[in-house]
Every structure is written in structure tokens, then in C-alpha cells.
Amino acid sequence: MTTFISTIFGLAGMLFFFLAFIKDKPSTKRTYKMLAGAFILLFPFIMTSWVQGINTALVYAILAIGLNILLGNAGQISLGHAAFYAVGAYISSALVLHAELPLFLSILLAGIGTAIVGFLLGTPVLRLKGHFLGIATLGLHVLIYNLVKDKLKGVVFGASAKMPEVHKISYLTKSWEYSLKNSLSSLDYQIEILGKSKPFYYDFVDTITKSIGQITEYFIIFVILVLLVYMARNILRTKVGRALAALRDSEVAARMLGVNIAIFKNIAFGLSAFYAGIAGAIYAHTTGALDETSFELTISLMILAMIIIGGIATIQGAIIGAFFFQVLNMQVIPLIFSSGKGQMLGSTIMGLCVVLAVIFVPKGIVYMLWQMKIKLTQKRS
Amino acid sequence: MELSNLFYFGAFLKNAGLIAFGGASILVIYIAFRDRLKRGLYAFLFPYHLYYSMERMRHPWKKQINKVLFGGFFAFLAGIIFTDILSDSQQLALALLKGITTGSFYALMAFAIILIFKTTDLVNFAQADMVTVSVFFLITILGGFSDQFLTTYPSEIAMVYGLAILIMILFAGGFGALTEMVFIKPIQKQHPISQIILTLGLSMFFMGISGVVLWDQDPHTLPNIIGRDVYRTSVYEDIKTKNNAFAGEIKNIIVMSSETDIKVQIDGAVEGFKNQKNIENIDMLSAEIEKAMSYDKLEQFSEVIDKISGLYSYGEDSKDIKTIVQHLKNVKNDLSDVRVNLEKSIETAQKLANLPPKEYKDVRDSYDAKTKAIEDEFDKEKASVEASSLTDEEKTIKLESLQKNKTKDLMGVYSIDTFASEKEGEMKIVPPSAIIKFTETVTITKDGLLAVGVTLIIMLIIFLLFKYTLLGIALRATAQSQNTSKLMGINVDKVFIFSWVVSITLASIAALFFAIATDMRTNILTFSFGNLMLKGFSAAVLGGFSSLPGAVLGGFLLGIFDNILSYTDMREVLSFGIILAVLIIKPDGLFGHSGAKKV
User: Fold this and answer.
1) Does B217 reside within a domain?
2) If contacts are CB pairs under 8 Å, which of residues 113-172 in chain B contact chain A?
3) B212: in domain
4) Residue % of chain B over a pLDDT of 70
5) For residue B534, what are the domain limits?
6) Which residue from A301, A359, B178, B383 has the highest number of Cβ atoms inside 10 Å of its Cβ?
7) Which is higher by pLDDT, B107 or B301?
8) What local confidence, expressed as pLDDT, does residue B235 receive?
9) Is B193 inside any structural domain?
10) How many domains are contained in chain B?
11) For the stretch B463-502, what's the b/e string if a residue is b when 16 or more beta carbons lie within 10 angstroms of its beta carbon?
């Protein structure tokens, strides 16, 4: 029954998003946008089993937006983005554990610190172009990854390699969790000792109690994502965004027009590192234990694949790509494979999708949606 | 030369290199600063300007400064190697020998990458995974022969192996051609970034296909070419099944012992509850615990305990309840300890099952010794307890606690991390007939020498092909200018396909030798990013991406560096440090030359 409700609910949500995208009339568009917003708010309470996976998707979306600024808007490729993800995670953990800064300040500072690291490291690397830039960023990734793995891990976390519960995002609603547990146990008492009948909301309260931490994380990551999307949109509309676009289309022409190529390349690198740093910090504060396998090269490639599949140079594309990947990994692949091969199969399908996308739809899902919109509106008129 | 002289030479190099590097850097910064001072404080804020101003300034020292920077860096590196690593001449000899063999693989790989880059202007990031498919194809062919064939006709194995390698080469060539025609041709005219992304997608796809659909992720062993130990695989499998049986045995022991342990603890908890009569709802609590006992799984038990402690943590103030909750929590902690131990032991057992015979025997012997010691001690204490003048009840209690300690100790034996490195299960056993010994420590596998020979022969063939045949001339012409060569009547499409065929074939041969000659067994990650593939990139960059002889020299240099540094923890970082340093300081590499760039 619950699966049925959540399936219907999820499909309805997708439909709202789609209609909000398709419709042109302002009033209808606003209605569907409000419905989609309601879907976002209600989502964790109805599809509770999905929340954890969607949290990961949101983090990936932040990463993908960052890389998209570099790849789609500035035209510079980076194959080592997972390194900045790692740098952000470690900076934030170090700030929280050793400097004892508050959580959100440390996330912000991690973003800024990673941006500075990216800005400085971008300086030498960004002299290169095309394939060589790819190779050099690959080398950068391996360097940072090895440094983090061998040196930084012990320094930041000590022997335990774990972050205390207090520094996690889910700790913010710990008191709610306790009170929910309390009321749940009083319900238990009434049912089992006093023999009252089970109230209809019992299961609901039970699931919410179990995953209140994840729901908190969902809302907080979502708010951060919205802020970052807003920031990206605004930056890309200003002088910086136009300079980056000019840089992407032709470096020589951009230089002729007075764009300082060197600095704007660095700015693009720093900006995308900022996004990666914030994503890494969020990751650190949700999982609590940093495992170096979460920062492997595969993550960089996956993010790249998300952008290509979702739609290059658009913010929506990055988000759609991240969700595509996560839903594929979380819901579709377990249907085919139940064993441990799933992760690998996910990357295979993503690889195939990337190859097909580059050959047939170089602009990704967003572009397909645009075409669909044009077709639908033409038919009606 | 005496080693002490070498040491002083190294120290000199190190200091001189550092001084040169530092001095040149300061000079560069000074000049840039002087240049920039007119435009304000910009130069300090954005170090990128340093490079640009360095490139733009019309200063006669410019090139010299670049050289000093570059030379200083490498002198510093060499100094570190001389002072810190080469304290042992045998180690040096071994490093050089191994360096030349591994260098030949790197050289072939770099050669293959550059060949594609020169003709088609595209760096193939999927090289490693295409190579994986080829090598696993070979493993499948060899696995197709029955054990009986391999053991009954040992004299024909060499022929079979050679034939299999030939088939693999044909397969690799066809695979390369097919990939070029299906995937690469449609995007030939697109932006370099699209090309990179496409090859990365191909890499993910081929990797997944070989890891999930066609083969698995387990390590496989490729037999040696020289040393005639082809049917080692079947012997190995035989031993592995025996090991597996032993692993099952250990698992049973551990599971049983931990179950009794848990029972004892739960009983203790229940007793504790029954003694506290003055608590309300005591019946409900004991019912909960009884229920928990009937669960098989520990998780559910700890869940119930969570529930109970949640029930009584808030609102109530009674001391007794607090102590009981504390007790329950202790029980839970103990249980989770037991579970961790259990998991570790099972892991150990599985590791044992994958261990090569020799190490396996050592480990098992040590385990047997430890187990025997524990059992002996237990027997002794048991005897002493039985002989003592206690009542029967006391005796049983004491014996129980002794038994409990014994199981705990036994579990301790199996859950110790006896394994120094995680990769033991992936190590190969090299048969003695496949090794040439110069001294006791300086050894090399015959296959390594063969690899060096084959690399040199291939290089010679390719050199002759490029220099003297029509095809080679067409390849070189296409590398220079595609449009002009089209006008001259060269079929550029065919040239592209040919270069892919040659490249994938060479890379497959490199990977084959790499798989045979290294100590690790082969799995699908052996050649991927971070291993052979990036080493090939690194060698190519070191030699200059545009020069084929440069790739070969770069490969051998990188191999030697790699093996010399393998005694420190710098090894992984080094090759990528080289990529970065070379690309930043001297983008054309050691032997490359920069041409005019298209706009």
C-alpha cells in the first residue's frame, strides 16, 4: 500500500515538474510551480525510503553544478574534481574538530578554502588546453588523492577516523528524535500493556522517527542547493558569466575583446572548486566517516557523465543528470542485479549513455525537453 | 665509484638544485614584479600573471631562466634519490633492472597513446579498458583448454600459448578498428572536450562490460611464457578448494563459540532483571528480553535494547532503572564487540581461502601453534580446577568461565590482522624456473627480459615502417596535415583505422607483458587509471607528446625513476608529479618540439 502511494506520489511530482516546464501561460505555470514546491516539501514524509539516496543526489547535484560552470560555461575540462570534493570534506572536518567552529560556518569556510586551493592550483594547470588539460587535471587528482589518503586522514581524524555525532547535520534535530521516540514508546505502552487498538498514524510516526535525521539533512541540503543555484545563476548573468562564455567560444576572440583570459580561467576553476568544497563539506557532515574510496577518480568521471547526460552549460541539466544517475543506481539497478555488481553496472550504463549522448544528443536531456516543449506548443497553436 | 662519494655528490646536487630552483624563482618573481609594478598590485594578487609576464617580457634571460628552473628541479630530485635511497648498491642494481623492464611496458603504452594522438589529434582515455578487454579475452582462451590437456601435453603448451597470443593480437586489432569506425569517426570533427568525454564514456563502458557482463572482478593468473609453469593455474585452483574447506571449518568454530558467548550474556541480563522486583512493568521488560532471546540475529536484539532504554531514559528518575539501563547498554556493547570480532574472523577465513599455497601454509602453521597453546593451557587449568577441593557447583561455575575465556582467546587468534598487506590474495607465485638470479637479492624474471627484447624489436619494426614504407609515409603525412594529405590522395579514414589498430595492438602487448611480469595477479583494474594507463600518459608527457622516440626514452626513464622511488612512499605521487612539473615548466617535454598552433 505504502509503495503504491509513494509511486503515485513520485509520478505526480515528476508530472508537476514537467508541466511547470512545458506550460507557458504565467498563471498555469505558477500553479504547477507551486504544486512542484509542495511535492518537494512533502516528499521526505511520503517517500521516506528514498530520502537517503536523494540526499546523495543533491550533493552530486551541487558538485555537478560546480563542474558545469567550469566545463559548460568556461569550456575548461577537469577530470580531477573529486580531489576538490575531498579537500572540502577535510577542511570542514578539520575546522569543526580542531577549531571548533559552528557547523554552517565551517561548511562555508570549507567552500571558500577549497576555492582558494582551486584558484592557486588552477594557476599552473590552466595554461594547458584540451587533452593536455585533461591529463594534467588527472595528475592533480592523483596527487591530492594520495596526499589525502596517506597524510591528511590521520592528522584530521586521529586514530578513530570518525566524526562525533555532535558535528553531523542530523544532530540538529536530535531532540525532536528523542521526543518522537518518547511518544512512540508511550504509544507502545498503550498498545501492548493497556491493550488499545493501533492508531492509524502509528506506522507513519514509526518511519519518521527512524529517519528524522535523514529528513533534516534533506531539507538543509536542499536549502543549500537552492542558494547555490541562485548564486550560480546570478554569477553567470554578470560580467563574469559573459567573460566565461566568450572564453569558451574562442580564447583569441575573447582576448581581443579585452577579457583577461588568465584571471577568468582561474576564477572559473575557483568557482567550481567552491561548489565542490561545499559538497564535500556536506558529505563529511552527513556520513561522519571519511572513506577515501568516496573520492576516487570514478566520482569525477560520474560527475562529468551527469553533466553530459543532463545537459551541458545549464544548471537544470546538472541537477537532472545527478538525479538520473542516483535514481538509476538506487532504484533501477537493484531490479536487475541484487548482488554487489550493481555499482559497476551503474557506471557501465552511465558510460554507454555518455557515448550515445555525445554522438546523438550533445546537449543532453534538457535539450530534448526543450525540443519536446517546442513540438507540443506548435501542435496546439 | 664508492658509495660515500655518491652520497656527497647527491648532497651537492640536492643543495645546488635547490639553490638554482629557488634563485631562478626569485629572479622570475622579481622581473615579473618589476614588469607589473606599473599596473599596480595586481601581480601580487594573481600569480598567473607571473607566467604571462615571463612569457611576454622581452628579456634575454628568459629562456635561460626557464632552463635553470627546470634543471634545478630535476637536480633536486636526483639529489634526493642519491642521498636518501641509494645506500645499497644491490638495491640500486635491482631498481635499475626492474626499471628497465617496467620501463619497456610504459614505453609501449606511451607509444600507443602518442600514435593515436599524432594521427587523429585525440588522446584515447579508453586505452586501458580496451586493453583490459583484449587481455581478458586471452585469459578466456587459455581457460578454454582443459586441465587435462595442459597437464598431459606440456611440450605443446608453448605452441598453444603462442597461438593464443596471436589470436589476442588479431582480436585487439579488430577491436581497435571497430571502435574507431563505430564511436570515434562520428565525432572526429567535434571539439576536443567532446572527444575527451566520449573516450571517458567508452572507458567507463568497457570497464563495466568486462567487469560485470563478460568477466568478473576477481584476480586471474596469466601463466609465464618462459619458465613453463602453465598448468600452475589448475594446481592453484585445487589448493584453493582445500583452503575454502578450511575457511568453512574456521567459520563454523567461530560462529558456534560466539553463539554460546551471546547466550551467556543474555542470561546474565535476564537474571539482572529478575532480581530487581521493585520496578513497575517488570513483566513487560522480561517479556521483551525473552522475545529478544528468541531472535537469531544480533541486530534485532540490539534494536529491542534500544527500545527498552529509550522507554526508560526519559521522565523517570529511579536509580534502579538507571542502573538496569546501564547494564543493558553494557550488554549491547559487549554484543557488538562480539559481532565485530565475528565479522573480522569471517573475513580472515575468506582471506585465508584466497591465499597462495606458500603463505597459506605459513599462516595456517602459526594459527595451529597458537590454537594448540590455548588449548593446552585450558586443559592444564581444567585439570587444576578438577583436582582442587571445591564443591561441585563452584567447579562448574569456574569451568564455565574457563570455557568462555577459551572461546574468547580462540576468536582472538583468528581475528588478529596477521596479514601485513591487504593485497596478499592478489600476489602471484613466481616459479623458480622463471627467474634469473644474479645475486641473492638481485633477480629478474625471464619474461621481463623477453619484454624488453620484444619492445625493442617492435620499436625497430615501427621505425622501419614509418621510415621506408608507403603506409608509414601516409601516416606521417596525415599527422602533419589532414587536409593536405587528403588532397594528395591519401585515404585518411584508412590511415586513422590503421593507427588505431596498431595502437591497440601495441598497448595490448604491453599490458600482456605487464600482467605476466609483475607480481600481482590480473584483475580488471590492473591496467586502468592509476596503474599502467597513467604511467603511459606520464611517460608520454615526459618524452614530449609529439615525439615517438621521446615516448620510448620517457618510458624507460619513468620506469627507472619509479623503481628507485618504490622504496619510499613517493612512488604513486612521483609519476603524476612528473606530469604536472613537465607540463608546467616545459610543456613540450624533454624531446618534443612545439609547432605553430592553429587559431
Assistant:
1) no
2) 117, 122-123, 125
3) no
4) 53
5) 89-180+436-583
6) A301
7) B107
8) 46
9) no
10) 3
11) eeebeeeeeeebbebbbeebeebeeeebebeebbbbbbbb
